[in-house]
Amino acid sequence: MRTKIEVRNVWKSFGSGKNRLPVVEGVSFSVGDGELLAIVGPSGCGKSTLMNMMAGFVRPDQGSIAIDGVQLTKPDSKGILISQHGSVFPWLTVQRNLMFGLNGHAHPDKAVVADHYAAIVGLKGFENSYPHELSGGMLKRAELARALVVKPEILYMDEPFSNLDALMNLRMRGELLRILSEERHTVLLITHDVEEAIHMADRIVVLSPRPSKIQAVFEVKLPHPRELTSHAVQELRLAILRELGAGDRSLVIEPRG
Questions:
Q1: Rounded to 5 degrees, what angle do the CA atoms 142, 200, 207 make?
Q2: How far apart are CA 237 and CA 71, in angstroms?
Q3: Whole-number Å distance between alpha carbons of 195 and 170
Q4: Which of 99, 117, 195, 217 is the right S-S partner for 149, CB 3.0 to 4.6 Å?
């Protein structure tokens, strides 16, 4: 698999002197073209800082990040960030939000393209609705469509489903996996939810408490769709939780039958 993103010995701290706060220390890893890589770690460990460096919004103090072999110095048009805070404009309809993302793109009929992506994420019939008229799950679908409509090579996803209830979270994961089976994107997923990472990722990087270092890397060699109560998933979940300091056999759900 060709390397899409290369993170080389990245360090980052904030403040100076006695107020200096080390956040990321000596992190190195790569993401393959078309791979879905999840990064998990305890709250406050520096996951979002690492994501922002990879997306070009924050410069590392040391080390480098390269996209397709080219060192990153600013946000790259190849990638788009989906955050837990939301990105749609409340004064625009779903269709207009998606069309806004196409500004600067030479599409003959932006409304048709926008409606196509609204349909892909299950919002057909809601193209003329405003964000405040949508449920939480539908709003997340609109945000996903707004990212996908520009056909980014890289999707940076910072806990995108964290504000959803458990059932909607599961549905949105399935929706994203369905879309990724149809459209090729490299995905970097930041999450504190181990089950979410196992459900979706090809590989999982586990970070230590702040300052972040790579504690472990797990390959997820399980076919989709993944049965989350299977023995293999539960054993992997337990192994990751052990790395996070929370491993216990009582946390394993044994499958029936």
A1: 105
A2: 34
A3: 10
A4: 117
